[in-house]
Design a protein that fits this description.
Elements lengths: L1 H23 L15 E3 L2 E3 L5 H9 L6 E3 L18 H18 L13 H8 L11 H12 L9 H18 L9 E4 L4 E3 H8 L6 E8 L10 H7 L5 E8 L2 E9 L2 E5 L4 E3 L9 H6 L9 E4 L6 E8 L2 H16 L8 E3 L4 H10 L32
Parallel strand pairs: 3-10, 4-6, 5-13
Antiparallel strand pairs: 1-2, 1-8, 6-12, 7-8, 7-12, 8-9, 9-11
Length: 391
């Protein structure tokens, strides 16, 4: 009972803190893109705000925006949460990465949303994220999977690596149940130890019948972002395969989709929206379309304010696109950066192979978050149950 009271107290403090962030603009605010000649990079596409403003705004507005929700069926038990406010922001960011990948797979990078959008690719994508347990990528599925596989109680804040691992399990379960082989179910691979190993990716993708979402969790500093990595973070958005970065500030996860000058462009999940009215009279497609939103105005944050714990995400629809991604990573993120964000290798080093053999393949993905990931999100109670890693 004491533990439950402490958790409820932490949740109330977190909700009050987030209210202040939104109302006072401590993290950022929603504004239009700046009138500048400086380029804006948006998920691999370059724009000049002065000459291509409408195209830039249309592209940003087409990104799928997942936010806190309220009034959905309870998660896990009859008395479980019916809102994810205060704890679900990183889970929503993970959903946004996956939604972007599904849109790439079904409609392509040049797809643009309109208020009357009713295309099959859009409606089926949105339906995957409905706030009900039956939806394959719902917050219910992600939270329950995190509880089952990572021992993260429902209502607990996830870090970038944790949500990536949960999505990996959720996507694999979706693929195992899928009956429509024409509809894409992405293969998620989480590259650990700040190293993308090509042979590992090829092993999980097999014959490449399904697209790949590659997630690279990183730790780019101790308590704040090391400035030597700032250029590398920005360079990620110049790669056409990029589907965003999940990170933010402690207790405040954000989905980053671009950069301009010294700032990052992001979608903020910290707006609480109602879940769809399941009982109202409408078609199934219309009801599912109500479960996602599109944001008209971008938010900005100085890259120096970014928490060092984050994850970069890439999408590859085929083996050829993966080879192209590796070429871009080598040329843009490694060869031209004095301090690369991560490594790219053809195969595992001997010690990595030995570690996997010793721990077992099933144990390796969950063995550690990047230092400070979930622990930074916890309140500083002396009896906190979170594990801390000393660097």
């Amino acid at each position: 009972m004491r533990r439950l009271r402490q958790r409820l107290s932490r949740l109330r403090r977190r909700m009050l803190f987030e209210d202040l962030l939104v109302t006072e603009g401590c993290v950022g605010g929603a504004y239009g893109f700046p009138q500048t000649e400086d380029p804006v990079w948006l998920l691999g596409v370059k724009y000049c705000p002065l000459r291509q403003r409408q195209a830039l705004e249309d592209d940003f507005r087409s990104r799928i925006w997942m936010t806190y929700r309220r009034g959905f069926p309870s998660i896990g038990a009859p008395d479980g949460p019916t809102s994810d406010r205060g704890w679900g922001c990183m889970l929503r960011c993970g959903q946004m990465v996956l939604a972007e990948a599904l849109i790439r797979a079904t409609a392509g990078r040049n797809w643009r949303w309109t208020p009357n959008e009713r295309s099959d690719a859009y409606l089926r994508t949105v339906a995957q994220f409905a706030d009900v347990e039956q939806a394959p990528f719902s917050i219910h599925q992600i939270a329950l999977t995190g509880e089952r596989t990572a021992h993260k109680p429902i209502g607990t804040w996830f870090g970038p690596n944790t949500v990536g691992q949960a999505l990996r399990h959720v996507s694999a379960a979706r693929a195992a149940r899928a009956t429509d082989r024409t509809w894409p179910v992405p293969v998620l691979h989480v590259a650990m130890d700040s190293c993308v190993v090509k042979s590992d990716v090829r092993a999980v993708c097999g014959d490449w019948h399904q697209p790949l979402v590659l997630l690279v969790p990183l730790r780019l500093g101790l308590t704040e972002l090391n400035p030597v990595y700032a250029s590398g973070v920005k360079a990620c958005f110049t790669i056409p395969h990029c589907v965003g970065i999940i990170g933010g500030t402690p207790n405040h996860a954000l989905y980053f989709v671009g950069c301009v000058d010294s700032r990052l462009v992001y979608l903020d999940p910290h707006t609480t929206q109602p879940a769809a009215s399941v009982g109202r009279k409408c078609t199934e497609a219309e009801r599912e379309a109500d479960l996602t939103y599109h944001c008209a105005l971008p938010c900005f944050m100085r890259i120096s304010s970014l928490d060092p714990s984050l994850a970069v995400a890439f999408y590859c629809g085929s083996e050829q696109q993966f080879e192209s991604l590796c070429e871009h990573i080598q040329r843009i993120l490694i060869d031209t950066e004095k301090y690369p964000l991560f490594e790219l290798r053809d195969s595992q080093l001997d010690w990595q192979s030995a570690a996997v053999d010793f721990l077992g393949a099933a144990a390796a993905p969950w063995d550690a978050e990047p230092a400070g990931d979930d622990s930074r999100a916890a309140d500083d109670d002396s009896d906190s149950e979170d594990d801390f890693v000393v660097l």
